[in-house]
Model the fold of this input.
Amino acid sequence: MIIILALGYFQATAQDPQYSQYYAAPLYLNPAFAGSELLPRVGFNYRNQWPGLNAQFTTFSAYIDTYLDDYNSGVGFLVMSDTEGAARLRSTTLAALYSYELRLGERAFFRPGFRASYMRREIGFFENLIFANMINPSDPTGPTLPGTDIAGLGDPVNMLSLSAGGLFYTENFWLGFSADHLNQPNQSFLDGVSRLPAKYSLHAGYRISLGTGGYRSDFTHTFKERYFVPTVNYKRQGPFEQLDVGAYVFAEPIVFGVWYRGLPYRPIENQSNRDAIVMMLGVNLPSGLNVGYSFDYTVSQLGIQSGGAHEISVSVLLADRNRTKLRSRDTMLPCPKF
Done:
């Protein structure tokens, strides 16, 4: 009974995985980012949250996407694995993405995007449980018998999740929104119904030039870029709300960012909604390689003894096979890589 209550509570309060470097996981943040770099792109993300506790969360994802010039479209594929808390709830996600680019003006664009995901969830600790009807009375210390006290308990749950998003941007500004789990699939491990709440996100930013640096050393006779980028990302899923607000400084090739995550004036179940202060350091090379590391300094009631959270992101832009082909636009999405 304790297990059933724990599972019911967990389902009622479950949230999707999150990344502090949310722009370094673009296909997870918003399907409209599929193909946004106009080049083939491969990326990886890893997050280890609260390693100091016995209820840590670990998330790994990998993605690939590209832009199809002839169709003004972006396509991508995302795979994610997530293990949550002491219950060891394991989730695996496979997703296909599509976006389409619309020109609204000479340097203004809008990209609607869609994502279809197959999700599989299973209880990690279930295989270690022994029920009374699994014990052989004539050999109680011998091998266990097949069986369970509750039919279906411990069987994986398979779900189809549908998501949509949109992204408006100009040369220096972007505004995006996304809605995940629009169909609210049933995530219950029992015979009942426990809907996965829809998740909504609103994200925006503005790139402010800080002038140019010295010459690049790659014989292109171009200057290094420097800019300041304030960003914001608001998320809501069920009763949970969070706000990421902060800024990045890019002095090619170094990126440094600091932001705050929480919503103190909107407590959840009488608990202060403070989460973490995030610090990030990375490199963004002209070759297309981007590497970032961030640390979440926990400011919630868990405190820094939780171990905070460590996060690593890597992405690579692959060579363009159509460099001699004229593109329909030269305005690049100003969104940072991290």
Observations:
- Residues 1-13 have pLDDT under 50 and may be disordered.
- Residues 2-13 form the longest helix (12 residues).
- The chain is about 5% helix and 50% strand.
- Helices lie at 2-13, 26-29.
